[in-house]
Amino acid sequence: xxxxxxxxxxxxxxxxxxxxxxxxxxxxxxxxxxxxxxxxxxxxxxxxxxxxxxxxxxxxxxxxxxxxxxxxxxxxxxxxxxxxxxxxxxxxxxxxxxxxxxxxxxxxxxxxxxxxxxxxxxxxxxxxxxxx
Length: 132
Hints:
Layout: E1 9-10, E2 20-21, E3 26-28, E4 33-45, E5 59-66, E6 75-81, E7 88-99, E8 104-111, E9 117-119, E10 124-131
Parallel strand pairs: 1-9
Antiparallel strand pairs: 2-3, 3-8, 4-7, 4-9, 4-10, 5-6, 5-8
């Protein structure tokens, strides 16, 4: 079964830096070039898991995608397996992407965990132009 990628509910702003649109959660490249992206998300599970829930669907993917094209190769991705203990997880994604001027990159969370998730304050998303 395929899961749609969507940004979770945000607790406070976790984006910073020039070019960031805080309402859409996107970084728009002011010029074409290679950008170093980094995001660290503190993700809370908002309801306790029901007892007897199996190991299926414990995977959590965090992606940084260009132009919201997360299915193509032009993205950065981290996959984390949610341990059975604890309800707060920290997941980081870092890497380099090439953006044309005016293209945007944004953070997506693919939640197959089965519980509602909230991105907590203290999370961040940054982009640095490395070179053209």
